[in-house]
Amino acid sequence: MTARSQDIKAQDLEAASALPAPATARLRWPRLKGFEWFAFGFVALLIAAAVLVDVIPGLARPNFPYGDFSQPPEWSLNGLLGTDPLGRSILSRVLHGARTTLGIVAVATAIALAIGMTAGMLAGFYRGPVERAVDLYANTMASLPPILVILALIAVVGNSVLTMMLALGILDIGVYARIAKGGVIAQNDRDYVLAARAMGASDARILAREILPNLVPALTAIVPPLVAGLIITEGSLSFLGYGIPPPAPSWGGMIASSTDLLSRFPLLVVGPILAIVLTVYSLNTIGDSLARRLNDRNRNL
Amino acid sequence: MTGGDQDILLDCEAVSCTLATSRGPLALLKDVTFRLGRRTALGIVGESGAGKSMLIKGIMGLTPSDITVAGRIGLDGEDMVAMPEARKRALLGRKVGMVFQNPMTSLNPFVRVGRQIDEASRLHLRLGKAEARARAIALLSQVGIPDPQECYAEYPHRFSGGMKQRIMIATALACEPELLIADEATTALDVTVQKDILDLLQALQGQRRMSMILVTHNLAVVASRTDELLVLYGGRVVEYGPTERVFAAPRHRYTEALLSAVPRMDEPAHTRLRTIPGRPPDPQDRPAGCPFAARCPAAEERCRQEMPGMTLDADGRHGFACFVPVPAPGPGATAARAEATS
User: Fold this and answer.
1) Distance of CA A50 to CAs A59, A82, A254, Å?
2) Domains assigned to chain A
3) B56 touches chain A (CB under 8 A)
4) Interface predicted TM-score (ipTM) of this complex, two decimals
5) pLDDT for B174-207, tens place per residue?
6) Residues of chain A numbered 212-251 and touching chain B (CB < 8 Å)
7) Overall number of domains in chain B
8) N or C: which end of chain A has fewer CB within 10 A?
9) Domain range for residue B293?
10) CA distance to partner chain B, nearest, from residue A224 (Å)
């Protein structure tokens, strides 16, 4: 018995040593919970649909009547979410709306990230007047109702996709600037920054190559919830009629055009509302999940 | 003094560092003068707060903005204090490499090891990607990293403190500097690892024929590894000279007290350790005279009133700032004492 268990032990050891050593601590496939799988999957699907919406076979065009008006959902591709008061396929309009919304929000976020990060990093690095200016901007934007800011902007330059992109971008510049600023201040007197200086690195080089990589985790975690916020703002604007001009499909606009018929055809708003709620939920979940994961990683450092 | 002397690499003259505070300027480092020859190793010793790191930061131009550096720091004939930022950046990393105290925080956690080593050689020597990589891998194996190829592509968190310090040394050597500064480079490491790193530094200094500055508060570190020794106390140089001579026959009262506080192997067990009574002067109210006067057994009235100047030995290589120096021993006594300390 003893001899056998020793044999087994020896075998186990051999088997264990034959296994390839765990090569690196690089990206392992993350262990996600069920709802996180849903969130990542939903956003991936939505992005895919937004990109491929024109080539989905059999999908009706968003601005042409497809069937009877205000039909409840039925078991067919275009009728899956029913038809709207003009007989257009709600699914088709939701997917086209996704393209518009995601496109606008993506560009807005890119603008906000580019400007906000640069301003925030400079503010954190040089402090002084640069920091005061950035703080003033961030505080001002944080204290104004976002819709009001955008409405003011639209009133001045008119209503277009480009205006929406810029307006939404401006909203988040301050937030990203603050996060970048905080991250830079936390790193300013780290030894590796000093070491880079001792290597003769210039300020620009230190910012771009030493400090920026360390900001990425904090930013990846904060981007999805902020994007979700922009989606809600964009939806609200469209609902108020200041978004993308009709007949272009947008989620907020679809809810708005169904409200007067809501008592008779309550199913009309299910499609767009579901789209907004699930997208925002998923983005927030992704943000939480990333934040938790990145914290785990820092703990191992 | 004008850089004409080819054998002098670093020439510091009357270097002072002053911190601007709300209550007026505060001298952290005063009148530090020393010269470092090519291919020589210099040890800088002193207690915490003596100004060791301040001196190094002053040399490297890494002082925070509220500290002003005065005097002349000649590196290869060029004055580092007066030169424009861009010129200084071109020299740092190129002619001077630096290893910091804490290897755990000196490497950027989000940047791969390879790129951190490449950085300097690509910046200063304009090497291409492949060239810089080959060089970095060669350096990694020189500093004793067992698997340099793999190490090159890894992130720093995979390595222990000793390994990280080896990587830091490789980083500092990337451009083959003429001067390597190790600022308490082994303080944060285990004792056994300390010895490995110090042996490595000493070997590299010999192989690469560069100068080296070892900054430490540990006399044992500099004893056998440096040619020259600079003893700092209270922001001033109190003694300077060839390491062996300073160890064998210290002239300044502080150096003597410091050396006799080192436990010795040849003493009977349970001998009481000698200590220096009192504590170093607070930079906020340093005495007018010798900073060590308050703790010095031989201090006279004059020591408290005025700062003694540097007295030089007969051959001008050994200097000390003391009015009542330890008497110079005869030739026989020097040999006996050298034997006892080695």
Assistant:
1) 13, 19, 17
2) 35-50+78-300 (1.10.3720.10)
3) no
4) 0.82
5) 888 999 999 888 888 888 888 889 999 999 998 9
6) 213-214, 216
7) 1
8) N
9) 244-342
10) 22
